[in-house]
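Bumping with the actual sequence this time:
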Amino acid sequence: MVARWPLVGRTGELEEVRRLLGAADGPRGVALFGEAGVGKSRLVDEALEASSGSGMRVEWVRATEAARGIPLGSFAYLLGAAGDDAHHRDDLLHLSLARLRERAGDAPFLLAVDDAHLLDEMSVALLHLAVTQSEVRVVMSVRTGGRLPRGLVGLWKDGLCERLDIGPFTRAALDQLVVEALGGPVDGQFLHLMWSRTLGNVLFARELLAAAVESGTLAARSGIWTL
């Protein structure tokens, strides 16, 4: 099984993300919406690789539940000790924006936020400042099904970012993913099992496939991966 899974079934979505991030006018970012495990983070990662190759400065911010209770907690590694020079909320936000600009330098700057639904209120406010008062562009992943910070919703409601919904894989895309991940033909029975158990959720598919290979339940026999 390959170490890095191939990106399949997402050509249209990836092209749309690249188009939106490269547009001179319009929204300053993209919010990728979807359930857990559909591959939002992988799309963000691919967009970053493409942007980095074109000369943009790129940075990852991974929001976590643990950092949610800390103002600007998820941005701490980017901003350093920004709070040491600020005594009020607005001062802290504008100082943080200045730090982001410093990291960008003269290059175009793309900020990626994974699991943006976990950001604290002040981090969301910083995103608003970044897309309205700087040249920073933003691409983020957002999980559906839960309550979102009000300010985060405003990013796409007010047209500052474009919302792009990411659904599970189709059956054909999942079959292709499994075949390419294993590097050879796969028995139809196992492909049907993968679809019936995962319904196109990429994360579930990876876990199920890895478990089947590691346990020996799925093995290459006469050149075909079979149960």
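The tokens above came from a reply further down the thread. Residues 171 and 196 are 10 Å apart (CA to CA).
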